[in-house]
Design brief:
heterodimer; A: mainly alpha; 15 helices; 2 strands; 76% helix; B: mainly alpha; two-stranded antiparallel sheet
Chain lengths: 323, 289
């Protein structure tokens, strides 16, 4: 019983995610799978970002750069070098991690708004560079030969495969997120978020700890990029490095509750459901972006802790269950 | 490749003239940052609204674009004050993330409504002032006037900040808000006014750009990113630095295409941006932080 109590937060998180993942597998419908794919992708990206944004308090506005770069590296290996999805995903994750490590050493010195601006600049620089980089196809990007999917049991089967790989990655992100939050390393991150100078005085090696948080939050987005564009069949600079996508990730983290493990799941689910509803509703179809903007504003102004944070404040009984 | 000297001079001057307008846009961003430490992510859409307001005033009422610009400026000021009280005031002392997201939500609202209202097809202000030829260099009239107006606006802003009472209040609040409040400065109103001045500059820049380039509601995004680059170049919070930064960026945009494909310009711009953030976050001309 005490073990259950101790790990209740993790159990609730995993339980919520299992329900999400199982839904398309039970119905077996393609459309449910596609919807859930979008949601799971958002959950995994938002949870990765949360390690930096929620725990460490550094606002990475250009986090999509890892998704895009990983995607490009992996896609290049698959389309030009004929490597398997697995090796490519590994390469995508590693390249995103290495980029984060190098960047982290440099830009994590910047605080607050300066850091946010630098991440925007890096994403834009990378997009502009890839646009000119001929081996990656320049502005037209690259496409996968259809025969590639044959190794994975045909195109239809590859879609299901992508789905299950995504589900596995999402589980990994959430477990990592939980472990970070409950570890000494995570405590260091939270201390940096509250007051970086004080944290350093208390013995947190802030530059190192921040860099590793940045690397951790970059690896999975890099792998997801490969998976996403493998499923997509083609890659171009504009969708790979879309700044707006980056900001959507932040919105999801905020919506659910930054700095919590469960928050990004609820935030991603809520945001994508709302977006789906607005896009298909006859009244809001044309102004869906504006409606989403109003919602974001209301959250930022009145519920800055997000759904999970708000519940934790208001209903103390739930604190153990909602990590 | 043989590069003609005349061509470089021509594109250099062209870039320089554009640089004045970039400078005005960046000044709006940097003023808001300097006074209240807020990065206004709605900057781009407000520039685009400046373009559209000029277009409609010119098109519907047939006013001269430069008279219309005055109206655009007033609208920009009012919009900024409104945005401040609706979205920024409540979170002004919250962590950066809150103000970034609050202004970004305004960005989404403007873009969302703008796309629905104006569609995504490009508009064009059909207005020309002819051109002026000086030897090999041909200057477009609209760009010359835009540059002159940009300088005038900068001068006006300087006079306002240094010679009037509200201007002095703004500088006091930028320097130390708590101390200014103790001295009886109504800080909420002054912050709103500063935000309004920032968006006014953005709207003016948009109006000027509309006289020489076609645009859509999304057109402001490019200038928002340029404003970030310029603002950092000149030192965030430093209006005169923003104008100089604008000139530097304009010149770079004029010269670089003579040596390499135009598509490399943004790569260099953003690399420069990140580099300056790392090496000299106070900007090229800034001493004060």
């Amino acid at each position: 019983m005490s073990t259950v109590r101790k790990y209740l937060g993790l159990i609730v998180t995993i339980g919520v995610l299992l329900m999400l993942v199982a839904w398309p597998a039970i119905t077996g419908k393609d459309i449910t799978r596609e919807t859930t794919f979008t949601i799971l992708l958002s959950v995994a990206l938002a949870s990765s970002l949360n390690i930096l944004l929620g725990y460490t308090g550094y606002v990475s506005f250009g986090h999509v750069v890892f998704f895009g770069l990983g995607g490009y590296v992996g896609f290049y290996l698959m389309s030009a070098q004929g490597m398997s999805l697995w090796i490519s995903m590994l390469a995508g994750g590693v390249s995103a991690g290495v980029l984060a490590f190098l960047l982290g050493k440099a830009i994590l010195r910047l605080r607050g708004g300066y850091f946010a601006l630098a991440t925007i600049g890096i994403n834009e620089a990378m997009r502009a560079f890839i646009n000119n980089f001929e081996p990656f196809g320049g502005p037209t990007g690259m496409t996968l030969n259809f025969s590639v999917y044959r190794d994975y049991g045909g195109a239809g089967q590859a879609l299901w495969l992508s789905y299950y790989v995504l589900a596995a990655l999402t589980f990994i992100v959430l477990i990592v997120s939980y472990l970070v939050r409950t570890s000494k390393f995570g405590l260091g991150l939270l201390a940096i978020r509250e007051d970086e100078d004080a944290a350093e005085v208390m013995g947190v090696n802030a530059p190192n700890v921040k860099t590793w948080a940045y690397v951790l939050s970059a690896i999975i987005p890099g792998m997801l990029g490969v998976l996403f564009f493998f499923k997509n069949g083609s890659i171009e600079p504009a969708p790979a490095f879309r700044l707006h996508f980056s900001i959507e990730m932040i919105v999801m983290v905020m919506l659910g509750g930054q700095g919590t493990v469960l928050g990004p799941i609820l935030g991603a689910y809520g945001y994508q459901s709302l977006r789906g509803f607005l896009l298909t509703s006859p009244i809001f179809k044309d102004i869906q972006l504006a409606v989403a903007g109003v919602l974001l504003l209301v959250i930022v102004l009145f519920v800055p802790a997000g759904v999970v944070g708000w519940l934790r404040q208001r209903v103390p009984v739930l604190r153990r269950a909602l990590q | 490749m043989q590069i003609s000297f005349d061509l470089i001079i021509a594109s250099l001057i062209d870039g320089l003239l554009l640089g004045f307008v970039y400078g005005i846009a960046a000044m709006g961003l940097t003023l808001i940052w300097g006074v209240m430490n807020v990065i206004n992510l709605a900057h781009g859409p407000i520039i685009a609204l400046g373009m559209f307001s000029l277009y409609f005033i010119f098109d519907l009422f047939g006013l001269n674009p430069y008279v219309a610009l005055l109206l655009v400026a007033i609208l920009g000021l009012l919009l900024g004050v409104l945005i401040y009280f609706v979205a920024v005031h409540r979170v002004i002392d919250a962590p950066h993330l809150s103000t970034l997201l609050a202004t970004f939500s305004i960005n989404m609202i403007i873009i969302g409504l703008g796309t629905a209202a104006f569609s995504a097809s490009p508009r064009n202000v059909d207005f020309s002032l002819g051109s002026l030829s000086l030897g090999p260099v041909t200057l477009l009239g609209t760009r010359l006037v835009a540059a002159v107006l940009a300088v005038a606006v900068t001068g006006g802003l300087y006079l306002f900040l240094y010679r009037t009472r509200p201007g002095r209040y703004i500088r006091a609040v930028a320097n130390n808000r708590d101390a200014a409040e103790l001295m009886g400065v109504p800080s909420a109103q002054i912050l709103a006014l500063s935000f309004g001045l920032g968006t006014m500059l953005a709207a003016i820049a948009g109006g000027l750009i509309a006289t020489f380039f076609p645009f859509t509601i999304l057109a402001g995004g490019v200038y928002e990113l340029k404003s970030f680059v310029i603002g950092v170049l000149g030192g965030l919070g430093n209006p005169v630095g923003a104008l100089l930064g604008g000139l530097i960026l304009g010149m770079l945009e004029g010269i670089i295409p003579a040596f390499m494909p135009t598509t490399w310009v943004p790569v260099l711009e953003f690399l420069l941006f990140v580099l300056i953030l790392l090496v000299r976050p106070q900007g090229l001309f800034g001493a004060r932080k």
